[in-house]
Design goal:
This protein is mainly beta and about 80 residues long. It has strands at about 1-10, 10-20, 30-35, 35-45, 55-65, 70-75. It has one domain (about 1-75): Immunoglobulin-like (Sandwich).
Amino acid sequence: MMTAHITTNGPGDVTYRWTRSDGASASDESLSFASAGTKDVVTHWALGSVWEGDTHWLGIYVDEPNHQDFGHKTFTQACAP
């Protein structure tokens, strides 16, 4: 599970998508802000058999309003529920 915090300085809509090291494309998602503030967004990635101890990463890209890639978080260990 990965959590990102999206912050705005005023009202408006934010469109974002998760990025990940296996190149899979996530669908765009959106948030509406009535005023300035922060909202948390969460994604889950079940690696399954692709894990094999490799290093992977998850990131977030905000498409609207500012077309900005916020980088990624690298991880090398799998977690079991």
